[in-house]
């Protein structure tokens, strides 16, 4: 249950101190029961008793202060302000602690209303009442921090240290300010002192890890992340773990594995390994760890993550199975229902997806649920239903530009150009600053302002030229414009920069105009293959290996080395050439392989991507050799060129074979000696 923000203030007030000061505070039945109800988190009961108290004693400032706190908690800020104003007026001046409490309550309300200057004034008034209360300085310093007034925040944190030298929050605050200004060395100094003062305080380690990441000292950062997670599953450390994985995957995984080995009964480390692999696209490996985690401690969160991984690799049946398991384990979390709807939609069952989102909005009527259902209906050609849901999203979130864009598109389909134009104009009004979440480019296009659409899109890209999603949006825009070559060009850049949402890409109707183009199909096939290789590389990088050596016999004919091998299970010989860089085979061999099933049409990947009507493979074609095996060693997915020479041998250069390891030629023994690394542990 959510705790009252202000309950901790009850301790700060210090009843025993007030008695020493001979301050008489209310002790009536209704007031006492009201405060007791607050301590028990019973909102309605608290208001009932405190309002009864005010009927009997309308000038009870103490009751008013607590009512203000409760109203603020309920987000009834007008009532909270009224009660706080009266509390400040009626609480006796000599009761400085409760006076400060009333100022703090009102300051918190002002913060929620975005009136930071008024909030600062009230925190300052509270400090005047209780100048030795470090908690009030901390609250003011925290507000200064969020206002980016780091120098003023530092002064308050220094005051905290002077009042209470052992209070870690002063040092934490100074360190956090230094982090915000990228003064990482200074920040590390402060956080290091925190870890000495309180070795079991996880935030000292997680914040120091953030500073170390800023200095690109990833090994040290990982040590702090692991330490913070080990103390209390520190939330900041958890997210830093995902961040550092992008730059230091190998050492991070190694240290997480060590933690898992040291704590075999703790499923948390398995979960962390799953998260790291998932966030790096190694979904199959992530599933393995999540499954092991689930065996130790079944949880809805883990089931959800397994489902997400299966969805990413396109196994929607398994994804549905596990999201259903998540829902069984926690039927109160309707985010799982939203996730199930997304899986159903991506699997092609839009009708079922819409039904699931109906369940979602029935229990959680927020704007995104309506928007998402509207989008599903939009893509299912339920124009009126989409308009209805987009409108609900707009009612609940009037500044959500995408809802106006979707509704505008639907109005346009209905022929209601006036309403469509109004929505598109609203999109442009709301989305005036280009960013990676912009959609104004589409509104400009639909208003017939193609040049502005392109200009806006270009500005989005210019703002963040490394964001693959921006280039994907550009591909969608130009596809909508009918500029197919341009769309393909931007899509290729997006894929080159790491866009890997293939399931979304293949369903997005914005790309309908290019989806049947050969170039589109070639790009998708090519980058899916790269994606699989990327994942495999990541998995390989975090495996444990030992060196092994194998000797492979060769024969020598006319001064060349010939080695027995199989190509896609076809027995052949290859020629080993230390000076060669390419892999090649004759058109005769390639044609034989094609006609006898050792090559498939999908293996032909070069620019001359065709076979002759008689099944012959054209010279110059680039093909993929799915497997080359010799001496028990495998090379997968080798690109080879088909050469004109009909008697040319299969040629593998040392540069290709070098993928296996170091190669030595022992002419005396007539063997190739290859030293390679064999995986011994996942």
Question: Keyphrases for this structure?
Answer:
682 residues, alpha+beta, Serine Threonine Protein Phosphatase 5, Tetratricopeptide repeat, Cathepsin D, subunit A, domain 1, 7-stranded mixed β-sheet, 3-stranded antiparallel β-sheet, 34 helices, globular, disordered N terminus
Verbal overview:
The protein is α+β, with helices and mostly antiparallel strands. Among the domains are: 1-131, Alpha Horseshoe (Serine Threonine Protein Phosphatase 5, Tetratricopeptide repeat), CATH 1.25.40.10; 156-244, Alpha Horseshoe (Serine Threonine Protein Phosphatase 5, Tetratricopeptide repeat), CATH 1.25.40; 545-681, Acid Proteases (Cathepsin D, subunit A, domain 1), CATH 2.40.70.10. 62% of the residues lie in helices and 11% in strands. The protein contains 34 helices and ten strands. Strands 2, 3, 4, 5, 6, 7 and 8 form a seven-stranded mixed β-sheet that branches. The protein has a three-stranded antiparallel β-sheet with strand order 1-10-9, with no helix packed on it. A hairpin with a 4-residue loop joins β9 and β10 (671-681). α3 packs antiparallel against α4, α5 packs antiparallel against α6 and α19 (300-312) packs antiparallel against α20 (316-329). The longest helix has 24 residues, at 518-541.
């Amino acid at each position: 249950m959510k705790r009252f923000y202000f309950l901790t203030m009850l301790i700060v007030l210090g009843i025993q101190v007030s008695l020493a000061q001979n301050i008489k505070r209310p002790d009536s039945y209704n007031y006492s029961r009201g405060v007791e109800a607050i301590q028990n988190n019973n909102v309605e009961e608290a208001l009932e008793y405190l309002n009864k108290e005010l009927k009997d004693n309308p000038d009870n400032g103490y009751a008013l202060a607590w009512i203000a706190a409760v109203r603020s908690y309920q987000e009834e800020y007008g009532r909270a302000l009224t009660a706080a104003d009266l509390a400040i007026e009626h609480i006796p001046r000599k009761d400085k602690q409760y006076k400060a409490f009333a100022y703090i309550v009102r300051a918190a309300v002002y913060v929620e209303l975005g009136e930071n200057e008024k909030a600062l004034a009230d925190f300052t008034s509270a400090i005047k009442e209780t100048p030795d209360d470090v908690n009030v300085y901390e609250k003011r310093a925290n507000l200064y921090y969020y206002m980016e007034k780091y120098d003023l925040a530092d002064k308050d944190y220094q005051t905290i240290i002077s009042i209470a030298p052992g209070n870690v929050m002063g040092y934490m605050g100074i360190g956090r300010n230094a982090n915000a200004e990228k003064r990482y060395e200074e920040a590390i100094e402060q956080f290091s002192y925190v870890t000495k003062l309180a070795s079991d305080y996880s935030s000292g380690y997680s914040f120091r890890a953030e500073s170390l990441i800023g200095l690109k000292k990833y090994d040290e950062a990982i040590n702090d992340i692991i330490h913070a997670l080990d103390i209390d599953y520190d939330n900041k450390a958890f997210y830093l773990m995902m961040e550092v994985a992008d730059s230091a995957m190998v050492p991070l995984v190694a240290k997480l594995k060590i933690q898992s080995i040291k704590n075999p009964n703790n499923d948390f480390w398995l979960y962390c390994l799953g998260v790291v692999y998932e966030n790096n696209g190694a979904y199959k490996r992530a599933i393995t760890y999540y499954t092991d985690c689930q065996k130790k401690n079944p949880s809805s969160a883990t089931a959800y993550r397994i489902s997400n991984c299966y969805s990413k690799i396109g196994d929607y049946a398994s994804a549905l199975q596990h999201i259903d398991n998540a829902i069984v384990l926690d039927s109160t979390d309707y985010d799982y229902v939203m996730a199930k709807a997304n899986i159903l939609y991506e699997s092609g069952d839009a009708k079922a997806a819409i039904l699931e989102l109906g369940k979602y909005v029935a229990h959680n009527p927020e704007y995104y649920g309506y928007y998402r259902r509207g989008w599903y209906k939009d893509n299912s050609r339920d124009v009126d239903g989409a308009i209805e849901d987009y409108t609900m999203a707009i009612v609940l979130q009037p500044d959500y530009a995408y809802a106006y864009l979707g509704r505008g598109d639907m109005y346009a389909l209905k022929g209601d150009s006036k309403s469509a134009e109004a929505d598109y104009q609203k999109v442009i009004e709301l989305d005036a600053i280009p960013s990676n979440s912009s959609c104004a480019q589409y509104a400009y296009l639909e208003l017939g302002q193609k040049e502005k659409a392109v200009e806006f899109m270009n500005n989005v890209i210019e703002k963040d030229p490394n964001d693959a999603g921006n280039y994907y949006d550009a591909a969608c825009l130009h596809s909508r414009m009918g500029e197919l070559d341009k769309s393909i060009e931007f899509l290729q850049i997006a894929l080159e920069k790491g866009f890997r949402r293939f399931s979304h890409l293949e369903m997005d109707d914005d790309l309908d105009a290019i989806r049947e183009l050969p170039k589109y199909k070639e790009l998708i096939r090519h980058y899916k293959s790269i994606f699989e290789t990327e994942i495999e590389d990541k998995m390989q990088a975090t495996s444990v290996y030992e060196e092994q050596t194998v000797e492979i016999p060769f024969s020598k004919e006319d001064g060349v080395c010939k080695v027995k091998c199989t190509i896609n299970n076809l027995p052949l010989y290859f020629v080993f050439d230390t000076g060669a860089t390419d892999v090649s085979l004759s058109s005769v061999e390639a044609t034989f392989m094609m006609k006898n099933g050792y090559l498939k049409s999908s293996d032909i990947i070069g620019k001359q991507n065709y076979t002759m009507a008689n099944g012959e493979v054209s010279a110059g074609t680039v093909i993929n050799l799915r497997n080359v095996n010799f001496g028990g060693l495998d090379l997968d997915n080798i690109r080879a060129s088909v050469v004109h020479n009909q008697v040319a041998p299969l040629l593998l250069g040392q540069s290709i074979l070098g993928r296996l390891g170091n190669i030595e030629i022992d002419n005396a023994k007539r063997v190739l000696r290859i030293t390679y690394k064999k995986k011994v542990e996942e």
